[in-house]
Specification:
Length: 291
């Protein structure tokens, strides 16, 4: 009787020891998160409510001004469009990489990675050259007779959307390729044998199975687009400013850390809310399958 009672107690003590040792191993990581993530966010929040005067005046001004709300609108619309375009273009590319012969797939995958690793500033300047009124794109369209006058593709949100979509594509293709490659081809073959058309195999089998990868890639692209700075600053115009540019202007030009901190904190809250909704819809486990 005594021996039987001691066994659960010993197991409980062993679990406590394992938990304590696991927590000790996690301390360095927790310290890094605290120093480099938690402390800066808290400092930003404090500055947003303490400067230039204590209170919520920065948030009232930020959310009550039509000018600032327009910048928020531009940011979220462009981020949403970039996300949709990236998924629409990235899905067939990822599917092609997953089903084509290994040699060709490796070559194309290496090209995508090299473009992703290339200097961001150089790639953005390249798009400035391509999209300008005398650039290759306008010349080709005019040569084909599709347009009579050069299109305005830079210094507006159109150029920002094109440039950001190109930059964000690898962040959709990479998780989607891994998910699609892990889908058993026998599932699609079984659907075909059962009478499903190619369109039904795509919409009712492949896309639902690849949905965790789509969700992971879309979330990554949308969140990164919300805070992107270089591409909107170079391809956009002052009349089409986005949120990252506004924050930089508050901090660098106006030296208004309170307004800059408020804008950054609003962006952080919105991003966490979107992530929470996606976790609610897909769950952390399914999102993790997209990596």
């Amino acid at each position: 009787m005594t021996l039987a009672a001691n066994v659960p107690a010993e197991r409980l003590e062993a679990r406590r020891e394992r938990a304590a040792s696991g927590f000790a191993y996690a301390l360095p990581a927790l310290a890094l998160i605290l120093v480099f993530f938690v402390v800066p966010v808290v400092a930003l929040l404090l500055r947003s409510v303490l400067e230039p005067v204590p209170g919520l005046g920065n948030y009232v001004e930020l959310l009550g001004s039509s000018t600032y709300l327009r910048i928020f609108f531009n940011t979220f619309v462009v981020s949403a469009v970039v996300t949709v375009l990236s998924v629409a273009i990235g899905f067939p590319v990822a599917w092609m990489l997953a089903i084509m012969p290994a040699r060709w797939s490796a070559v194309l995958f290496a090209i995508i990675l090299l473009s992703m690793w290339s200097n961001l500033l150089a790639r953005t300047y390249a798009w400035m050259v391509l999209l300008q009124r005398t650039g290759v794109i306008n010349k080709v369209l005019m040569g084909l007779g599709l347009i009579d006058q050069p299109l305005a593709l830079v210094n507006n949100l159109t150029g920002v959307t094109i440039g950001m979509t190109y930059i964000m594509l690898p962040f959709v293709i990479l998780p989607l390729r891994g998910v699609i490659k892990n889908i058993d081809p026998a599932v699609l073959q079984a659907a075909s044998v059962c009478g499903a058309t190619r369109w039904q195999c795509l919409t009712r089998v492949l896309i639902p199975l690849a949905l965790p990868g789509v969700a992971a890639g879309a979330l990554m692209v949308f969140v990164m687009s919300l805070g992107y700075f270089v591409t909107p600053a170079l391809l956009g115009g002052t009349s089409n400013m986005m949120l990252a540019e506004m924050i930089a202007q508050f901090v660098q030009s106006l030296v208004n850390w309170g307004m800059g901190g408020a804008a950054a904190f609003v962006l952080l809250v919105v991003t966490l809310a979107i992530y929470g909704v996606q976790l609610r819809l897909f769950g952390a486990g399914r999102l993790g399958q997209g990596g």
